[in-house]
Design a protein that fits this description.
This protein is an alpha/beta fold. It has twelve helices and seven strands. About 40% of the residues lie in helices and about 10% in strands. It has a five-stranded mixed β-sheet. The longest helix has 24 residues. The chain is globular, with a radius of gyration of 19 Å.
């Protein structure tokens, strides 16, 4: 393991300058050129593309106006159009979007990857249980085990060939949002905020996440992993509406502060995993920083309100079924009261794949991760 792969800020900055000089930061993908053989996705609603559709849960988005700008209409994506990982899959050269695990039950279409993300899920098993069924990170890993066994079978029972194949894939993991908004900051339903300080909770989450990611590495051959940090949850319209902004701020500052503690733990986790796991290539995607930059872009004219009318029966988070959303969707940061619009997803995906600053990703971006 090269020591230069650590997420030390000074080294990260050096790497960014090095890649910029070599011309590898901008324009690093060619449409139609497959950068990696497969792309596996773990996460919650921001990455979910239909895994929750058949589950008994309030956390589903398989009805209009969701998908109003997606070619297939409402698919279970919690946006008006594509998700961040949909767009990254395009950058990686895939002709079709990565299928949901729920749609690959027959073992088809798994060679290019599988999306396991589940709305309402978290790193902790109990997270989101008040909204109904969901597939936690542990459950997503169990589903991945099923996929790996299917993959081995499709490759003629050749485990070494399967491992070599999986070593080349990109893995995206984006969990933790619900561990805060659907756990820690719901004290009437969950005890975690009474048990842990924000610092302790971030540490406990990072430790559990670390074990889950080590399972992905050790048992299932993952080597190239992009960890997506949390956005400014304290600025989401649903959070501001339920908690109230603090000290004249437009956001709930104590929630953003807690999120940043966790994000810092994630950056430390990237260092640790790269240092201790042979051939591990983990990167951190600073969604907090990237999304914060989006709020200052003139193209985003509405940054504090949802584009779609939200339903009162789900604590004012999700779109009301069949209601007409705003016509100028590309000008809205948020689609519903928690999830981002396709325009914002594009902004984040672009800077995740082709970092414009050393603060966007660390130590390298996804396009360079694909090349390793």
């Amino acid at each position: 393991m090269k020591e230069s792969y650590y997420c030390n800020p000074a080294i990260c900055c050096f790497l960014f300058i090095l890649f910029s000089v070599s011309g590898s930061v901008h324009g690093r993908h060619d449409h139609g050129q497959l950068m990696v053989p497969c792309f596996f996705i773990f996460g919650a609603s921001s990455f979910d593309n239909g895994n929750n559709n058949a589950l008994p849960t309030l956390a589903k988005a398989n009805y209009p106006p969701y998908g109003i700008d997606f070619p297939a209409g409402p698919t279970g994506r919690f946006s008006n159009g594509r998700s961040i990982v949909d767009i990254i899959s395009e950058f990686l050269g895939f002709d079709d979007y990565i299928p949901s695990f729920a749609s690959t039950v027959g073992g088809e279409n798994i060679l290019k990857g599988v999306n396991y993300a589940s709305g309402g899920s978290g790193i902790r098993a109990e997270t989101g249980q008040h909204a109904g069924a969901r597939i936690s990170m542990d459950g997503q890993l169990r589903n991945h085990q099923i996929t790996v066994l299917r993959l081995i079978n499709r490759l003629g029972q050749n485990e070494s060939a399967a491992k070599e194949y999986l070593n080349k894939c990109i893995y995206a993991a984006g969990l933790g949002t619900n561990d805060y908004v659907s756990n820690y900051f719901l004290p009437s339903l969950y005890p975690t905020s009474r048990i842990y300080t924000p610092e302790q909770y971030a540490l406990v989450l990072a430790q559990q996440y670390s074990q889950q990611l080590k399972t992905l590495y050790t048992n299932y051959g993952a080597r190239k992993v992009a960890l997506f940090g949390l956005a400014q949850l304290g600025c989401a319209p649903s959070v501001v509406a339920s908690k109230g902004a603090t000290n004249g701020s437009a956001c709930v500052d104590y929630i953003n502060d807690a999120v940043q503690i966790f994000n810092n733990r994630l950056k430390e986790l990237v260092d640790e995993l790269n240092r201790n796991l042979t051939d591990a290539k983990f990167i951190y995607v600073n969604v907090y920083e990237i999304a914060s930059e989006a709020t200052s872009y003139p193209s985003f004219r509405v940054i504090d309100a949802p584009c779609c009318p939200v339903a009162s029966n789900n604590t004012l988070i999700l779109c009301t079924i069949n209601q007409t959303p705003c016509p100028n969707r590309d000008e809205y940061l948020y689609w519903d009261a928690l999830h981002l619009s396709e325009a914002t997803n594009m902004f984040i995906a672009n800077r995740s794949y082709n970092a414009q600053s050393p603060t966007h990703t660390c130590p390298i971006d996804i396009s360079d991760l694909a090349k390793l």
